[in-house]
Design a protein that fits this description.
Elements lengths: L6 H24 L3 H12 L10 H16 L5 H8 L4 H25 L3 H12 L10 E11 L4 E11 L2 E2 L7 E5 L2 E3 L2 E4 L6 E8 L8 H18 L3 E8 L23 E6 L3 H12 L13 H10 L1 E4 L5 E3 L20 E7 L4 E2 L19 H11 L1 E6 L14 E2 L2 H5 L17 H6 L10 H6 L2 E6 L8 E7 L2 E7 L1 E3 L1
Parallel strand pairs: 1-19, 7-8, 7-12, 12-14
Antiparallel strand pairs: 1-2, 2-3, 2-16, 4-5, 4-17, 6-16, 8-9, 10-11, 13-15, 17-18
């Protein structure tokens, strides 16, 4: 026969857990969860009617689950049960207090910065209506980069997003011509759509200003992963989040780190061929939220360095601080695995500038262990490894592209790696964040990222290039031609 809950346990629930949970309901209602808060408040108030049928262990579990429902209304019952099994009620109450304060601060910050994405998209549609909605008028590689290894005398041209109007174009070697100083060159063409392996890493801003868009970002990433998995693309997918920290691998459903760093959880790359691992990544993304970080800019540079190189800033010796070697690692950080596919593609989703190389007091929000390396040092590793960075940020976020400044437009990384994100038509790009927010059916697919990746190709060639060498690439598809003189990036 089951032992009924003691009067003392019921008293603890009614005077502590229940009342605290109801108070939390009001807090969450203030953060935009009014309907959910009222519903769950009602569910909790029904609990005293049945607690006489619960023993102490079940009673505490019921308390924990009710509290978790309030804290994380988007999670499934199974996910909530997994979390409640890992932590005591006292820990969850501490977590409630922390997240409640963080979410309130995030709401205040987001409300100051956020403008309706629907309004922005409506204006965008009007501005771009006579310009083919921002797509090329004909055949065009919308982003290109020519990187040259002077020591090895080898070059690489990246063509990212090859379109004929709004249709993506699948290139073959017969479509492409390379000249140096007017002389035809031989090359090897490889395209992501032809089975080349690729590591795709999403870099997601989870600071407070993202509060009003984080649900759309989560949905977009999950839907895009669905497409990748179904498309047969070979390679991996992973996630790195950032605030002013990076690599602090603690989820929002876990207690805060002892040193109270901002969370910046990541999900190590998993093979797109492993369904269970991809499902776990989806669950990770669905649990992300945006809070804290009541200032700007954010640590995107550090997130890129971490994802590409497993590096967070400089060590005490002035060299790159590799994480996991037990030396100079910021407390609470974990190592990010090495990326080993043939190509790497990073997809940034952010709504604000990033910390540049200026180290004035305005950068005081960066704790010393998380100050990123100089942008040029990080960029050199991207260009050397052929890592492309696509940037989805708001069309109205248009700042300096000079990394010596304290605030730098995130487009800096796209422009210098051959990625999309640069504002090229009427102040818009094909990857504007507001398009992610209003996407209804396919999320990031609505902003053509799937077509960009499917049509991305690289040309590898050997040549001795002088400082004044003129490198040009031409595309011939049917009766249409596109020719571009490329700026040479040496490393």
């Amino acid at each position: 026969m089951r032992q009924k809950t003691s009067g003392m346990a019921r008293s603890r629930w009614l005077s502590g857990g229940l009342l605290s949970a109801v108070c939390l309901s009001a807090t969450l209602a203030g953060c935009g969860l009014v309907a959910e808060g009222k519903k769950l408040k009602g569910e909790i108030e029904d609990i005293p009617d049945v607690i006489d049928d619960l023993d102490d262990g079940d009673f505490l579990k019921a308390q924990a689950l009710s509290l978790l429902k309030l804290l994380f209304p988007d999670l499934s019952s199974d996910e909530l049960a997994d979390i409640s099994a890992s932590y005591s009620l006292d820990v969850l109450l501490d977590l409630r207090a922390e997240l409640s304060a963080a979410r309130t601060a995030a709401k205040e910050f987001a409300d100051k910065l956020y403008v309706s994405a629907g309004e922005r998209v409506s204006q965008r549609k009007k501005d771009l209506a006579p310009l083919n909605d921002g797509f090329p008028a004909g055949l065009e590689a919308v982003s290109q980069l020519c990187a040259y290894d002077s020591q090895a005398a080898r070059g690489r041209i990246d063509l990212n997003g090859v379109f004929d109007g709004k249709a993506a174009v699948k290139l073959t070697a017969d479509n492409v011509h390379l000249t140096i100083d007017g002389k035809p060159q031989t090359f090897n063409l490889s395209c992501l759509g032809d089975g080349r392996t690729v590591d795709i890493v999403f870099l997601i801003d989870i600071t407070g200003s993202m509060r009003d868009v984080i649900h759309s970002v989560r949905d977009s990433v999950v839907r895009f992963v669905d497409l990748l998995e179904a498309s047969g693309v070979r390679g991996t997918v992973g996630v790195v989040t950032f605030q002013d920290t990076v690599g602090v691998n603690r989820t929002f459903q876990e207690p805060a780190p002892a040193n109270d760093y901002e969370r910046s959880p990541f999900f190590s790359p998993v093979s797109l061929a492993e369904a269970e691992e991809v499902d776990a990544l989806r669950s990770f993304v669905n649990r992300l939220e945006a809070n804290r970080g009541a200032d700007a800019p954010e640590n995107l540079a550090g997130a890129i360095d971490f994802a590409r190189n497993n590096v967070i800033g400089y060590g005490a010796d002035g060299k790159p601080n590799t994480i996991g070697d037990g030396k100079d690692d910021p407390q609470g950080t974990s190592a990010f695995p090495k990326l080993t596919s043939e190509r790497q593609v990073f997809v940034v989703l952010t709504d604000i500038t990033f910390h540049g190389d200026d180290r004035t007091p305005s950068n005081s929000s960066l704790l010393a262990p998380f100050v990123p390396r100089d942008s040029k040092d990080i960029l050199a590793t991207l260009q050397r490894t052929g890592t492309t960075v696509h940037v989805s940020d708001p069309s109205w976020s248009d700042e300096s592209l000079d990394p010596s400044k304290e605030k730098v437009d995130a487009d800096y990384w796209a422009i210098h790696t051959g990625g999309l994100g640069k504002d090229v038509v009427a102040g818009y790009s094909l990857l504007d964040l507001e398009l992610v927010v209003v996407g209804k059916e396919s999320g990031l697919l609505d902003i053509t990222l799937d077509k960009v990746i499917a049509s991305s190709c690289s040309l590898d060639f050997s040549a001795e290039l002088t400082a004044t060498a003129q490198v040009s690439v031409s595309l011939d598809v049917g009766t249409k031609n596109f020719t571009s003189a490329l700026e040479l990036v040496r490393y």
